[in-house]
Amino acid sequence: MISILVVIMKFLLLSSFIALGAQGWVTSIPMSPRPTTSLSSTVQLSRFDRLKKNYKGPPSVTDTSQVSFTYEAFEEAVAATDYSFNRNDVIKGTIVQYDNGGAIVDIGAKASAFLPLAEAGLITEAANEKQQIEEMVQLDVEREFQIISEEDENGQLLVSIRRIEYRQAWERISALQIEDQVFEAEVVSVNRGGAIALVEGLRAFLPGSHLTGALPDEDLVGTTLPLKFLEVNQEANKLVVSNRRAVVEKQMQDLSRGDVVQGIVKALKPYGAFVEVGGMSGLLHISQISYDRIDDLEKVFSPGDKVKCMIIDHDKVNGRIALSTKTLEPEPGDMLKDADMVFEKADETAAAYHERMEAERKAREEAAKDIVMGLGEGMDVADPLAEVTDSLESVLENNDEKE
C-alpha distances in angstroms, 361 versus 1, 45, 366, 368, 375? Predict the structure, then answer.
């Protein structure tokens, strides 16, 4: 019982002490202040904020009133910049470095483009001579490139110069074909069927049958020949040229009827002989060999014989000429008796032949003129204006009076 009362007394005393402390009675008791924490101290500053808090200096004022380009305009320009490249696009770039058998090209994108050696240009040498990238493109020179691939995992593109030059070469070849002019090209290789020549950087086939005065062997490599087109087909990538056609056209410009030329008999036919004259194929018809009748042509000519002939007709479009030896005979039948003598006197006989032909032409003209004059004298033709007495002035005066 006593213990219960003691406990109750302690409880009452403790309650009284707490109440007095609440009224300020215990304010004189020194107490260590507890640290107060604010919400702002718990915020984690960024690295930039810490540097700004510790090292920021006096605020600087920049006058941008005289600047023509504003921050807003800069943001619009950046937003308008599009680095989206598509395959087959043609862009401008600058080669900045040779690397790994190719070249690095700056095209203004996030990553440089790569130009492989095989795409650095059209073939300019023989197939067995490999060119170096340094020989084909130069550094720090801006030019056009064609994109030939999508971006890889590093954002790099593959570009090409060859495809641009290939398209431009076909355009120039098409223009040359329309003009149908003679051009020159270098032979870079030979094969069993002919030779390969470079025309505007493209490989053109020159058939052996269209070579003049040469054979398609190794001696032909490196030579420059006059050529003309035989076939141009861009879709089939087919380009065929002819040396014979170019040579024939050039020679045909200098040839005319009545000229004496020298050739070689190439083949004999029942109707005549084919004679090659400076790359042209001329027909010496059996009726034009001699004034005398020829029963067996092989008794007169053999393949490989050198002959002199006179041109009596020509086809400049197809490069064909018609030849004659009987016009060179001093006497009819000399070709069958002594052909060498006929060839020795060919120029002299041809001059006499031209004089005779000119005299005959003048005689025909005079005869035709006499016939026309004779017809005029025998006909009484009245003047249809003989009875017209009115002059132009009188006709105009009559018209004025009627009005």
Answer: 178, 117, 9, 11, 21
Is residue 234 classed exposed, middle or buried when 0-12, 13-18 and 19+ CB atoms within 10 A define those classes? middle
Q: Of the spans 21-30, 55-64, 332-341, 365-374, which averages the highest pLDDT?
A: 332-341
- pLDDT exceeds cutoff 70 at 16: no
Domains, the chain, with CATH or none: 90-160 (2.40.50.140), 180-247 (2.40.50.140), 255-351 (2.40.50.140)
The C-alpha angle 187, 193, 199, rounded to 5 degrees, equals 30
pTM (2 d.p.): 0.51
List 101's β-bridge partners, or say none: none
Q: Which residue has the tokens 């937003």?
A: 79
CA distance 394 to 390: 6
Cα of first residue to Cα of last residue in the chain, in angstroms, is: 168
